[in-house]
Amino acid sequence: xxxxxxxxxxxxxxHLCCMIRSKKTHPGVEAKxxxxxxxxxxxxxxxxxxxxxCAFIEYAPLExxxxxxxxxxxxxxxxxxxxxxxxxxxxxxxLMESCIADAKTRGCAxxxxxxxxxxxxxxxxxSFAKKFGFETVDxxxxxxxxxxxxxxxxxxxxxxxxKQETIENRELTVYYDLQCPYIPQRIETxxxxxxxxxxxxxxxxxxxxxxAKNLPCPFNNWAVFYQGRFQTVNQIDGPALERIVKRG
Length: 248
What we know:
Aminopeptidase, Glutaredoxin, alpha+beta
């Protein structure tokens, strides 16, 4: 399999896998490119199968990963995604193996990723990761788990505020960054949905590493609060929002 890593030089002309079906210029794709342009200089890796399809892994040194997780000499996997005709051909395994090999080459202590007691739609497949030896090393009260493959016995952990899972604001509150190209469209949909139904909505863009490391909940690029309580890292739509509101 031939893989291609995005670089500052090829970033403008390469497709970003998960939005490859979009034939028109998409605001989320351009926002993602701008976000990546800064992150690549920090050691962030976006590696994809060099074909016209969706098979990629995205990871970064934990010290510079925009997540409320702390540790030394770990790589953090944001996303590992294979869809369509590329599934079942071993590309997911090859991508994960390439990340693990990269971690060992860099002299890292291991690789980690966000999981949950019940698989979330917007998180990478944790059962797949466990086949490589990933284990739960930390948990939050809300059922989220930090999975890690440790090479030396050390363990990363959720940041000091990540287990708080409460905020003072009782309105529907969404923390987000621009790493995922679906987010701008999701924000627009939520604004319209909430506006039509007069549901108060507070949107907070996470725009710095410091802010991300100190978030009051698990976060992979999106986090939802309602009535002051953390709800999910899933990118919700209208029906999902209604279920959250009904639960109170």
